[in-house]
Each structure stands twice: as structure tokens, then as C-alpha cells.
Amino acid sequence: MYCRQFTDPPENIVEKHKAHFGTFSNVSPKIDIRGMRAPYAGIPFPTFITKIRIKSRINYVFALDNYIGLAQILDFKALGLAEIIFWNKETGKKYVYHSIMPPRRRFIPIITKRGICASYRKSRFIKISWGRNHRHGAMTFSVKGDNARPKAEGYFYSKIDDSFHTDCMFVNPSPTQSRCSVTWFNTMDIKGHIAINGEEADDSNGLAIMTLNRAYVKVHSKIKVAYGLGIYKDKKIAFELKNSNLDAADADRYNDNILVVDGKQTALPSVYMTHPFGIDKAWVIQDTESMVDLSFTPLSSNSRTLNIIALRSSDNTIYGTFDGVLLTADGEKLTLKNFPGILYRNLIRI
Fold first, then answer.
1. pLDDT tens profile 234-293
2. Best CA proximity match to 186, nearest among 10, 348, 26
3. Contacting residues for 80 by C-beta, under 8 A, at least 6 apart
């Protein structure tokens, strides 16, 4: 059976112009990949030019009793984009809010010990924060309504020492060893609420995934990522399955795919995601190692296209359910049925 071991993380991801590639059971003090030698076509461009090609994103996926959603902040260097989208699981109603952030020194921090990543616009306040010293994490948003959507606010808090908390890091060639992509992945129990139009809402318990990715990107970057988050037979389950045109040439050895069951991690092989009948119809997600065999049925989707000067970003965020089988490193077979999740597809030209 497929097996990819977790090892201890390096102090620095890049040393002497080379990255420490691998799958790590914790996270380095900094998510910093600057300094790779000649990352583009072997041409020794000045460092200040290659640093411009490093793009970052932070995703925060959350699931409460009645809601499931995704908050994300993208760093395009010249500007940033913050967005939160969530669904009421009972009614299927969708809520979407986004904000373009003007230039500033850094949208997404590189320090993993503590950090704040936020859109400070009053009508679209979205903040993701973590403090490993104080052993907590949080996500807060407060967004004003308009003719198309209501006012909403939410708050989620997590403790790092909860039983579901995991930390791991993936450092992958992207696609060769001259460039790299690093992802910090963690799961957590959360407690919080979402309130619509100022209505009172009691806190409830839920689960969340936070990922922070930094990568040397191409002119055209394509990514598809599936997040599953919920309870299966009294077990807390979270998984991330991804493929993109930045994947390593040896994708089974280096990838970001992971399954977490009650805080125990399983590194998964590379997967193929196909949608033979269109993105709004059933998706098929499979590997070649018989550890992942899933179908994803969309229930509601949101599309967004952004064009600003030389930047074009096209996104599809889809809420739906997973059916099929996942296999843990211990050989346990998880047969999922109507398991909630979000599938995200992004195309960027910059």
C-alpha cells in the first residue's frame, strides 16, 4: 500500500539556494521560499524579479451545524483579494462577499509563530489570525449588505491543544527542483457562530481547515482543490485533495494531499479530478493506489471573474457532497455518504 512518511521540518525551507523537499509533521518557523537559484528556465534573473513571481494564498474552510464555507485571501503582490462565501446547509442559500485590497508591504505573513491576515475595509472586514504561543486561532468577519445580499457577521475560535488539531507542511518541487511550492496545513475544532442581519445566534461547535500556500507561479496557473470536513460514525474527518499545473513531476512522492481522522494524519497519493459532464455536474476524484475513490455532487456554486490590467482570475467555488471510499494509513476503510465539502477551481493569468 502507498506510504509517505512524515518527518521533522527544517529550520529554514530554503538554504544555499536549494529547498528541503518533503512531507513534514510540523511547520517551520517561516513559510519563506525566497532565494531559489534560477527558478525560471535556468536563467539567473535578479532576486527582486523572481520574488515578484512568488504568490501566496490562505484558505480557511469551516463547517458548523448549519453553515459551511470558505474564506480566502490571495496575494498578487500589486494588490490582494479577500473573499468569504458560505452556505446555509438546511436551506441551500448562498452568501458571497469579496473585496479588493490596495497594495501594501505584505498581505499574508510568512511567520508561523503568530500572524494576522486581514482585509480592513469597513464594509468587508475579514481577518484570519493565529498565535501559536497563546495556542489559539481565530477567523472573524463582518460584512455589510446591499441590494443582493444581507448583512452578516461571524466569529470562529479554536484552541491549538484540542484533540483534532494537526500541523503539517508540504514542500514540493513545482514542477521541478528549481522551483518550489510550500503549504502549511492544519485542522482544528472550532466554536463560533454566523449571524445574518444582526439576528442573535448561539455559538455551536464545528471543524475547520486552514491552509497557507506560497509558490513560484507560472504565467498561467491552474488549480483544483477539494476539501471535505465533517463527522463520520462519530469520527472527525478532514481531507484536502489537490492537483494543478504546478504539481511536482513525481507527484506521488511530493503533493499536498492529506486525510485527518480524529487528529491522525494520512498522506495520500496524487489524484485525478475530472468533470466529464461539466463543472456543475458530478466530479470524479481517484488515485492509482486504491486509497481515494470519490465522487463529488455539486449542490450550489459560485463563479467570479476578475480582470485588472494584466491580472485575470477566474474562480468556481462549489458546495456539495462526497460519496465513495478513503483509506487511512492503518488500512481503515472510510465509506462516505453525503459527506459535506467544498471544491474550488482557480485559473490565474498574471
1. 999 999 999 999 999 999 999 999 999 999 999 999 999 999 999 999 999 999 999 999
2. 26
3. 73, 74, 100, 101, 104, 107, 119
